[in-house]
Amino acid sequence: MKKLIGVIRIFVGILFIISGFIKLNDPVGFSFKLQEYFSPDVLNIEFMSPFALGLAIILVIVELVLGVALIIGYYKKATMWLLLLMILFFTFLTFYSAYFNKVTDCGCFGDALPLTPWQSFSKDVVLLILILILFFNLKYIQPFFTNFGRSIVIFATFIGCLSFGYYVLMHLPVFDFRAYKVGINIKEGMTVPEDAEKAIFNYNWKFDVNGTEKIITTQGEYPASEGTFIEVDTEVVSQGYAPPIHDFTIERDGEDYAEEFLSTPNVIVVIAYDLNKTEWNGWPVIKKLTNEAIKKGYKVIGLTSSGEAEVNDLLEKQNLNFEFYFTDATVLKTIVRSNPGILKLNKGTILQKKHWNDAEEIELQTISSTNAAIDFDLKNRLDSIAKYDQLYRPLLQETDLEKREALAQKLGLAKEDYTGDLWKKQLLLDTSNLKVVKNILDNYGYPGKSIVGEPTNLIALDVIEHNPIHIDQYIDLFKEAAAKGELPMTRVAALEDKYLMQQHKEQIYGTQAQITAANGFFIWPIKDPEGVNRRRADAGFDRTIEEYAAELMGEKTAYKVLKLSDIKTL
C-alpha cells in the first residue's frame, strides 16, 4: 500500500505541477477562460470578470505550489485539504460545463492540450478518486528533506512562480501553443486539404403517418415515406477536419481584406482586441514603431473589435498614422496576449510577435525609400483638418432624418452637433481650416505624398476646393505638384474645370456638368472640344468625354458639344 500511495502521490503532484505551469505560462489566456465561466450564460457571476486575471494568477500559483508540496510532503494535512477542495470545485465546474454544454474547453492545460468538456470532467473524476485515496492514507506519505528544507523549496517555488508570471505578463508566453505562433503562415492555416475528412451528420426526418410519429434517419437525402412531413433534426456524427485557423478576417466597410493583406509582403499589424481595456502607456511606443515602419516602406494596419467611435477617439488622441480594420475579439485575444500587441508579417507568415513592452525588438529593414521623407507632424496637422473638413458634409448630403441621426452617431457627434444650421457650422470650420492650409502652402509649398503620404496629400487641395475663391491663387501650385507625382492630376484637372465653370468660362477637361429641370444633365462647354479626349488621357482619365457623358446622362443620350452662348437657352 505504501508503494501505491507513493506512486499516486508523485503522479498527482506532477500532474498539478504540469497543469499549473502551462497555465502560468499564459495567465492572460486562463483569465479569458475564467471570464467565460463568469459570463451570464454559464455561472452568471459577471461581477467577477474584472478580477479574472488576478484570480487566474492566484489559482495557477496555488495549483503549482500544491503539486510541489504534495511531492515533498510539506504540511501533509493542510496540503491534502486544499487539494481536495480544489479538485471538488473543478469537478463541479467541468461537470456543469459538460452537462449544459457551456464552455467547450476547460483550459485545464491551456492551449497545449485542449480537452472537451466530458474529457475534462473524466480527468477531474480520476484525480478526485486519487486524491481521496491519498486523503485517507496520509500516514503513508513520508516527507522529503528536513522541515526547513521543505520550507525553502516551497518558498523558492512561490518566488519562482511569481517571477515567471510577472515576466509573461510584461512580455508574452514563453511557450506558444496557439495556431498563430511565430513561423506559422496564416493563409495556409486556413486551408482545408482536398482529402480532408468531411463532417458527417445524421438527419432525423419526422413524419405523421396516420396519427403516429415516424422518424427516418438518413445522411441528408430526403426519405421516401408515407404521411405528412413534420420537421427534421440534425446531429453531428463526426466533426470532420477543422483547419487550425478558421475564423480570421480583416474587415472594413463590409469587405474582407484578409486575402489582400495575407498576400502582401512586409506588413506590421497592431492588435488591440478592446480599445476600452487597452493599456494606454503602450500607444506612444506603438506610434514610434509604426512611424518608423512606414518610413521604411512597411504597410501598417491596426486590428480591433471595438467600434468606429473608439477607433476615432484613439487615432485623434494618439495621432496614429495607420488605419484600423475589424476582427472578432476572440480571434485577436488568441493571436497575441497583449493589448496592444504587434505582429510582423510577410505574405501571411508571422515573422515576429511582441508585447508592446518589447516593440523595440521588432526588426525593421528599409524596404522602400518612398516614404523616407514623411513629416508626421505635418501629416497629423492635415489629418486633424480633414476631420473637420468633412464633419458636417456627409450629414448635409443625407436628407432622411433617421439616417442622418444614425450617421451622426457613427461619426461620434452629440445631438447639438448635428442640429441647427449645419451649413453655417461647416463654413466656419472651412474658414478656420483655410487659415492653416494657406499658411502651409505659402510657406512650405504643396504637402504632397512624399511629405505626408496618401491620402493625406489630398487634404490641402480639398480645403481650397471648399473655399473656391482661392482656387485661382493656388491652381498653378497644384499643377506643379501633380506634374511631380505628388497629387493625382485628375483631381487638379477637375478642380481647374470647376473654377472655370464658376467663372462662366469654358472648361478644359470636360469634368463638370450641370442639371436643369427642363434639359437634365449637360456637359459644361469645353475649350477646343476636338482635343478634349487627348487632354483627358494625358491627365489620367480612363474614359473619353463621350463615355463620361453616357455615364452621367444615360447610354442612349449622345454627348452634345455646347458653347457658352448655348447656356443661356438652357
Shape: elongated
The neighbouring-strand order within the major sheet is 8-7-6-9-10
Euclidean distance between termini CA atoms: 108 Å
What percent of the residues sit in helical stretches (DSSP H or I)? 40-55%
Q: Low-confidence stretches at least 5 residues in length (pLDDT < 50)?
A: none
Structural class of the secondary structure composition?
alpha+beta
Strand share of the residues?
5-15%
Average pLDDT, rounded to a whole number, is 89
Number of strands: 12
Count of alpha/pi helices: 22
Could you describe the largest sheet, including whether it forms a barrel? 5 strands, mixed
Q: Mind telling me the C-alpha Rg?
A: 33 Å
In short:
With 570 residues, the protein is of the alpha+beta class. The chain has 22 helices and twelve strands.
Structure description:
The protein has 570 residues and is an alpha+beta fold. The chain is built from 22 helices and 12 strands. The protein has helices at residues 2-24, 27-38, 52-72, 76-99, 117-135, 147-170, 186-189, 258-261, 282-295, 308-318, 329-335, 376-389, 393-396, 401-410, 422-444, 449-452, 459-465, 471-483, 489-502, 532-539, 545-553, 564-567; strands at residues 200-209, 212-218, 228-238, 251-252, 255-256, 267-272, 299-304, 323-326, 341-346, 349-355, 513-516, 520-523. Helix 2 packs across helix 3 (52-72). The protein is elongated and about 115 Å long.
